[in-house]
Amino acid sequence: MPGPANFQTVPDQAQIDRLTRNLKFHPVDNPDPRKLSRDQIEQFNRDGYLKGIRIFTESESRENRRYFDGLLARVLAEGGHELFDQYGPPQAWPRV
To answer: Which residues in the chain land under pLDDT 70?
Structure first.
């Protein structure tokens, strides 16, 4: 029987560099929009974002906040920094 699978949850930079990715912007072309208006789609294609759209209910927002507050508490308890990302804590970031 084979052993348990071993995989990384987050790929390292070398794995990311090997991916073939197309990160260019692709405008939305929807002749029959159901949720957004044609003006909103045009604005998104022009500006790249929309604002003022409710995505989560108030209850979902509270639950998301509880989850991320708990996640941050665990990171801080393990010696992490609240602004930690793939480059390390802010003091390790290169100055530009």
So the answer is: 1-10, 80-96
